[in-house]
Amino acid sequence: MTLDSLPPLVRAEIVHVDWDALAPEEGKRLRALGIDQGARVAISHRGIFAGRDPIALMIGRMTVALRRVHAKAMTVREI
Q: What would the DSSP string read from start to end of 52-68?
């Protein structure tokens, strides 16, 4: 399942990131925030408008706003 389809508040681990689907500078920023393979995450909530962007992603003790297109590039498994 991809991160964008993960239900809210369900804990998951990122098992794969398709870095080729993202611009190099976006990938660098996500890695700097700790969003990479092995990271444990959960979606706290989604945007309320048409594309449901952005996604509020909980990682560790921080919450990060993530675009849906970035979340689609990440494969997760529930834990």
A: -PPEEEEETTEEEEE-H
Q: What is the pLDDT of residue 58?
A: 94
Residue 26: domain span: 3-78
Consecutive 10-residue runs of the chain (79 residues): their mean pLDDT? 91 94 90 91 85 86 90 93
- The enclosing domain of 73 has a CATH number of 2.30.30.90
Region of 13 on the Ramachandran plot (φ > 0 left; ψ -120 to 50 alpha; else beta): beta
User: 13, 69 in Cβ contact below 8 A?
Assistant: no
